[in-house]
Predict the 3D structure of the following.
Amino acid sequence: MALRVGVVGGGQLARMMIAPAVELGIEIEVLAEERGMAARLAAGSVGDYTDIATVLAFARDVDVVTFDHEHVPQQVLRTLVAEGVAVHPGPDALQFAQDKLLMRARLEELGMPQPDWASVSDAEQLQDFLDAHGGRAVVKTPRGGYDGKGVRVVDAATEAEDWFAALAEDARGGSLLVEEFVPFTRELAQQVARRASGEVRAYPVVETVQRDGVCAEVFAPAPRAGERLRDAAARIGIAIAEGLGVTGMLAVELFETTDDRILVNELAMRPHNSGHWTQDGAVTSQFEQHLRAVLDLPLGDPSPRQPWAVMVNILGGPAQGGLESRFASAMAAHPSVKLHTYGKAPRPGRKVGHVNATGDDLEDIVYDARAAAALFAD
Amino acid sequence: MALRVGVVGGGQLARMMIAPAVELGIEIEVLAEERGMAARLAAGSVGDYTDIATVLAFARDVDVVTFDHEHVPQQVLRTLVAEGVAVHPGPDALQFAQDKLLMRARLEELGMPQPDWASVSDAEQLQDFLDAHGGRAVVKTPRGGYDGKGVRVVDAATEAEDWFAALAEDARGGSLLVEEFVPFTRELAQQVARRASGEVRAYPVVETVQRDGVCAEVFAPAPRAGERLRDAAARIGIAIAEGLGVTGMLAVELFETTDDRILVNELAMRPHNSGHWTQDGAVTSQFEQHLRAVLDLPLGDPSPRQPWAVMVNILGGPAQGGLESRFASAMAAHPSVKLHTYGKAPRPGRKVGHVNATGDDLEDIVYDARAAAALFAD
């Protein structure tokens, strides 16, 4: 009997699990939000992931349930577990990816380096935090943010008034997260895989470049990263995976500061944009590793295959003809660049694919990957 | 509109086109012989590939028709072409893979190095050939052979009597192919990709090891292969691809002789077992390259990613529990070996999967790949 993995969510992360699942001989079943999504080839089910009956019915036919995103409600997750379904990552871990206030409090308990932060429930509390941190801070809604949404840099408490007003109307009440504005030199990401029986594997720390709050480029391993930095990032990743009980892939987004520290910015408990380079640049891709980890199979070697790998996102894409209309020119000009598309209609700023390049010379492959990605933009 | 490739045949070669199709954003549709075959994830159609109406109906929904095997009858292929369907490789090329007598005659016209050969229609002609070639020869049925079937080494014409008898009963009549018994030191394989508009790319020549007529192991690039040998093999591959008008992947199986020549043994016009190493060892896998070539898209870089790659077939497999029962032990012991399974029930000698290993040290990766593959055997 083939092992069967069920993935809730039909986006590109589920789609990119299909290739390693086919090669390993793991059957993959996707519960997609609607028809025609990125993971449509494996989407035998379409339904609402917030509906307990829908998700339970989906879970009956698979050996383990995992996720394309972190939005499945705790109540649904806990019902699955109570019904004996293997869920990875489980609700106890996922709550820290779903609520940034919980995450900050737990990382503090674990002694992880992170920005100063506070839970604030009104403008006065926020102003106090601003006054204590040089007059500038980052305000975040604890839930539902992604790709820069739900994040705002403020210089005055009045700039978060609409969010406080929304909180007051929310039946659940609650608070906002405020964090010190970190003077960072660059952003890094540390990926770690962990399986239920405890085995952990750390990928090399990478540098990520964001534009308008969206990941634009990744350099792997992070250039100019000495042994001290690499070890510190791996230790943080492993400590968080173990401390939060994460199973599957964990991505820890990090700030490298002007005073040479690394601080935890965000967490993601799933394959992550910062790890797309592993498809062509690592012995074991993050998508294969996630499948192994959630099935509690031994983890694969996360080592790079070549000295450098670069990932450049394709954001937007041509208004006419789809990405396919650019295949001929991009492939002819860049025969060694690897193209990955998500089967999504191009729309300004939307992630519709990415390219990877690997090699011995970082400058060469950065040029190659950027030029190839640019050929897909209008 | 996504590009759509239709693959006739539901075996492991079709299966292994799924992963690169998903990543590139090419829709792949498989016409399988029956339900539950290796390529079942993409097998929206099930039917008889010798039936013209079945194959025509399948071809209507795709941009190009290509193949998992070379057994689609010429009449079906020519009807597709007459109906305006893009077929790659086309019938004019495929006939040379379908009939070894046609192949030998055409290679002779092209001046390709090959064993002495003859078309023989009775035992007397075969005995004459034997007498002229040291008393030993290889007799082949021109059609339908694979994995060593339809091939026999004979020391006397009487050893082919049953085949001559079968020929006499066959309404089409015909002859057997007889070839000199080549004293070879090893077998090599040269893969080439060619697209309709003429672009050609050669992979590095590899060494293949056969056991009981079935490919067991592949070393890439071929060890102890100097520039002269590599260039000669690539030139032969390209000359055959161009001379026979092959589109898609071509594999040329070669003998390296004791007197330092290379001779063409067999041809395959599709992805081939000798190229499975490219999935993890080359910038562009043979499966991605085949998709690009049959869609007439620019070809990818066939360069190796690392100095050495080794492929070891999994032949047979455990009698109980399927390959999955061995995942834990094989993955734990060999975290850097890449496993590829075909979703086929294990049966003695059957190709049910393979493993690839890549790295700087050939001995290390050979050990690793063999040990991993052995864990899947009973």
User: Anything to note?
Assistant: The CA atoms of residues 30 and 44 of chain B lie 6 Å apart. Chain B touches chain A at residues 1-3, 15-16, 18-20, 22-25, 41-42, 279, 283-284, 292, 297-301, 303, 305-306, 322-324, 327-328, 331-332, 335-336, 338-343, 353, 358 (CB under 8 Å). The mean pLDDT of chain B is 95. Chain B has three domains: 4-87, 116-180, 184-374.
